[in-house]
Amino acid sequence: MFPTVGQQLRETRRILADVVAPEVSGDYAVAALDDVLATLQVLETAWDQILPFLQWDNGQIAALLDHSAVDADLADRIAAARATNPPDPLDFVAVHGRNLELRGLLAEVIGHLGPDAPGVTAYLRQRISRYPMTATSSLPQRG
Question: Could you read off the pLDDT of 3-28 as tens digits, one per residue?
């Protein structure tokens, strides 16, 4: 399919940079536009990596939750989540929803067991290193 999502994002970024940016004045507006351009560039290069990342992440969290020693209520909710069939791997909304559910359960596990819960630190380090959308922009400050 053409244009691809990446191509559309690249062209949108080019139009903003070449047509809109020269017309923008004021430090705040320029900084905001620069951040939008940086965000579009991140999306352009990483949008197609998000679904595989979420699927990897869901598998990692589910495996990590399997080894969690928590209270009965949380253990039951973890068991129910793990017993649920994985969503269609091509359905971004469903895969993302599953990720939110599993991350919520992991947050509860960490709340009960603390940050030293088995495997959590290693998982978080790996997740940070694999996350495909990394940007270093900051919010513009009003003068």
Answer: 999 999 999 999 999 999 999 999 99
Contact predicate 68/117, CB 8 Å? yes
**Nearest to 61, CA basis, from 78, 49, 44, 77:** 78
Contacts of 39 (CB under 8 A, 6+ apart): 135, 137
pTM over 0.85: no
Which residue reads 């965000």 in tokens? Answer: 39
Look at residue 139 and tell me if it is in a domain. Answer: no
| Tally of domains in the chain | 2
CA distance 101 to 67: 17
**Nearest partner of 117 among 101, 105, 130, judged by Cα:** 105
Tokens of 49: 């990596």
Helix residue ranges per DSSP H, the chain:
5-15, 27-46, 50-66, 72-83, 92-113, 120-130
* AA identity, residue 47: W
Assess whether 71 and 113 both reside in one domain. yes
25 and 79 housed in the same domain = no
